[in-house]
Design a protein that fits this description.
Rossmann fold, five-stranded parallel β-sheet, 10 helices, 55% helix, 9% strand, PIN_dom, metal ion binding, Putative nucleic acid-binding protein
Length: 188
Amino acid sequence: MVAFPAFLDTCVLYPAYLCDTLLRLAEASAYRPLWSADVFAELHRNLTKRGLPPDRVDRRLGQMSRSFPDALVTGYESLVDGMTNHPKDRHVLAAAVRADAEVIVTFNLSDFPEPALKPYDIAAIHPDDFLLDQLDLYPGVTMDVLRHQAASYRRAPNTVPEVLVLLQRTGVPRFAAEVRRHLGLPTW
């Protein structure tokens, strides 16, 4: 079975804990992550602008590339000008089209209006919805991923509820609440 292809926009790779959760789910074969050199350049620029040392950012991007050697989409540049979504995200749609992605995971849903996506049979999906879908399709895998994620950190957050607090702040509150429900915790 070929894993579900999902193009990850820069904005969902930027928050460290959300990125970690998404990539751990991909490692567990819940879906196939996709990105482009343009997404990596934007991510590098935004992380260094935030104050992260360039060598740490390079290490993070290198780890992502080594962990997912098939994720990098190439050969999409000639498609960019033909895209009709928001100009700053045309490279994202072009790469998603080139890779035959089924979804673009992004916080910037308004940059990907339905008329721009429809010809390519691609949907833009908020990371909260994407993670809820993963939890619905692969509840055991998703819960194991979160447990392993929490256990991998040397200091807080090193419990699933602590990770959920950070994921909620990152912009996936419904996913965090649903995982709390699965754990028998208050959903707030």
